[in-house]
């Protein structure tokens, strides 16, 4: 019974991992690729580890620690990658409507020059 | 054109030689006599569960001392080479750093992760005689934690006097443990001058955990000094 | 193909050695030559580890999987693993010194191509 349930959860996790790979191949620009790659593969990995914990109940402590560590580091690394590629002005897809980070950075730069000119 | 032809000729000749080696390789079916001696007598004589550790630290301990010396020499060479450039270019390195500030999310995660990485590295080199790992692997993990610190918080400064003192003391204590083995037990770097203890526990295998702790600290601080040299502020 | 595992890893190590040698001989950028050297280093380590492997045996650590009495029949040769430990650390030291030299060459000559380092040519 444990084995059946664990195997089903591992199968669901592998479906998500497959969709992550498909997304990385088919998305139009690099920001979309970073987003699908991270979200789907993090969920797929967590589901595989939970399925393994159901299959072998003796390993549950170590697997919970692993899940915590993956949840902590995967999103942060993709955030750093996306910010770095925006700073290098890698181009967005043609269908893009709004670029919030660009607006935020021009606002901040505008306020800095205001402060400098006001202090003079 | 001639150069490319020569390169191709060299590669083809090496390829023929390697093909001969790979096709005539017969896998042995039993352990060699040296390995039989180390695996057979190792656990009783030295008390370590990890047989590779007992070979590296005790049976071939002098090679490990030579390796620690080579690592120290290369760290000193890097310090010498990159220190000259920092002194000659003066303070022009300072304004470049303001562009590479990391975002706040990354900074918070780095502050949370670096102690966990240090704990993991210390676990690896303290349990070197029971599980795979040891001094060099644990020291490398600690140095990678320091590299994460440099990437996430570029203005972090390390205390150079403490690092230098820790490195020199660890190297010195390693040789001291070897000399204690010479005076109190069978030979240089013999580990039997501390009690062998119960097999498989943390405080067992004589002086092997002590040696690995000193090697781990030395390698960790040394590689951190090399990383700091490459980053640009020369720790004199 | 019924090849034992050690022959496969031996061939992979020798192939890495060839690829690293090609990289060192054809590129002009110093950093690419250093990468080729590092590949050759990894290839040599793979060759050394695969020499000590015996089929069907496990890692040389004595715990609940392998007990002391029949360790002689169940573990792989520990000596090549110990030699490779030393070799990896020394490869790291050499790569660090090479990269420091590359940084200094770039500072003095403002270019990373080996065609500009002509002091030893005659």
Structural class given helices, strands, pairing of chain B?
A: mainly alpha
- Computed over alpha carbons, the radius of gyration of chain C is 20 Å
Helix and strand sequence of chain B = HHHHHHHH
Largest sheet of chain B: none
Ends apart, CA distance between termini of chain C: 53 Å
Helix content of chain C: 55-70%
Strand content of chain C: under 5%
Radius of gyration of chain B: 23 Å
Tertiary shape of chain B: globular
Class based on secondary structure composition and strand pairing of chain C: mainly alpha
CATH architecture of chain C: Orthogonal Bundle
Helix-strand string of chain C: HHHH
The mean pLDDT of chain C is 88
Span of the ends, CA to CA of chain B: 49 Å
Number of strands of chain B: 0
The helix content of chain B is 55-70%
Q: Can you describe what's shown?
A:
Chain A is an all-alpha fold. Chain A has four helices and no strands. Chain A has helices at 2-26, 30-55, 60-87, 100-119. In chain A, helix 1 runs antiparallel to helix 2 (30-55) and helix 2 (30-55) packs antiparallel against helix 3. The longest helix of chain A is centred in the middle third of the chain and has 28 residues, at 60-87. Chain B has 236 residues and is mostly helical. Chain B has a domain at 46-80 and 114-236. Helices cover 69% and strands 0% of the residues of chain B. Chain C is mainly alpha-helical and 122 residues long. Chain C has one domain (5-116): Helix Hairpins (Orthogonal Bundle), CATH 1.10.287. Chain C has helices at residues 5-26, 30-51, 71-74, 78-109. In chain C, helix 2 (30-51) runs antiparallel to helix 4 (78-109). Chains in contact: A-B, B-C. Chains B and C meet through helix 1, helix 2, helix 3, helix 4 and helix 8 of B and helix 1 and helix 4 of C.
Brief synopsis:
The complex is a heterotrimer of chains A (120), B (236) and C (122). By secondary structure, chain B is mainly alpha-helical.
In terms of topology, how is this protein built?
The complex is a heterotrimer of chains A (120), B (236) and C (122).
Chain A: H1 2-26, H2 30-55, H3 60-87, H4 100-119
Helix pairs in contact in A: 1-2, 2-3
Chain B: H1 2-23, H2 33-46, H3 51-59, H4 61-89, H5 104-126, H6 135-152, H7 160-184, H8 208-231
Helix pairs in contact in B: 2-3, 3-4, 4-8, 5-6, 6-8, 7-8
Chain C: H1 5-26, H2 30-51, H3 71-74, H4 78-109
Helix pairs in contact in C: 1-2, 2-4
């Amino acid at each position: 019974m444990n084995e059946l349930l664990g195997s089903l959860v591992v199968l669901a996790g592998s479906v998500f991992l497959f969709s992550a790979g498909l997304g990385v191949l088919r998305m139009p620009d690099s920001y979309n690729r970073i987003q699908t790659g991270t979200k789907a593969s993090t969920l797929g990995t967590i589901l595989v580890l939970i399925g393994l914990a159901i299959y072998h109940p003796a390993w549950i402590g170590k697997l919970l620690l692993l899940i915590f560590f993956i949840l902590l580091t995967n999103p942060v690394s993709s955030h750093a990658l996306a910010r770095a590629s925006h700073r290098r002005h890698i181009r967005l897809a043609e269908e893009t409507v709004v670029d919030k980070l660009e607006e935020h950075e021009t606002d901040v730069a505008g306020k800095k020059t205001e402060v400098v000119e006001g202090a003079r | 054109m001639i150069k490319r032809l020569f390169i191709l000729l060299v590669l083809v000749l090496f390829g023929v030689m390697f093909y001969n080696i790979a096709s005539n390789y017969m896998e042995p079916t039993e352990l060699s006599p040296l390995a039989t001696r180390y695996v057979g007598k190792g656990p009783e004589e030295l008390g370590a569960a990890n047989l590779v550790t007992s070979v590296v630290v005790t049976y071939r301990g002098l090679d490990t001392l030579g390796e620690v010396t080579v690592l120290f020499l290369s760290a000193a060479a890097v310090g010498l080479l990159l220190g000259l450039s920092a002194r000659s270019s003066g303070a022009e390195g300072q304004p470049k750093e303001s562009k590479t500030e990391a975002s706040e999310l990354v900074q918070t995660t780095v502050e949370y992760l670096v102690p966990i990485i240090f704990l993991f590295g210390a676990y690896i080199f303290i349990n070197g005689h029971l599980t795979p790992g040891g001094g060099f692997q644990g020291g490398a993990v600690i140095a990678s934690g320091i590299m994460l610190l440099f990437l996430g918080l570029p203005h972090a400064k390390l205390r150079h006097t403490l690092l230098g003192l820790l490195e020199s003391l660890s190297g010195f204590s390693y040789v001291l443990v070897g000399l204690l083995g010479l005076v109190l037990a069978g030979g240089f770097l013999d580990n039997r001058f501390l009690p062998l203890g119960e097999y498989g526990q943390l405080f067992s295998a004589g002086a092997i955990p002590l040696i690995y702790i000193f090697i781990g600290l030395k390698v960790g601080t040394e590689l951190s000094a090399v990383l700091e040299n490459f980053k640009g502020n020369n720790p004199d | 193909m019924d090849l034992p595992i050690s022959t496969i890893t031996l061939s992979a190590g020798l192939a890495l050695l060839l690829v690293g040698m090609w990289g060192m001989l054809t590129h002009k950028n110093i950093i690419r030559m250093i990468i080729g050297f590092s590949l050759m280093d990894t290839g040599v380590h793979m060759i050394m580890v695969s020499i000590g492997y015996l089929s069907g045996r496990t890692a040389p650590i004595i715990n609940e999987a392998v007990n002391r009495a029949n360790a002689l029949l169940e573990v792989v040769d520990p000596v090549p693993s110990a030699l490779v430990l030393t070799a990896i650390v020394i490869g790291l030291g050499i790569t660090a010194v090479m990269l420091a030299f590359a940084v200094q060459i770039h500072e003095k000559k403002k270019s990373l191509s080996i065609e500009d380092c002509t002091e030893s040519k005659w």
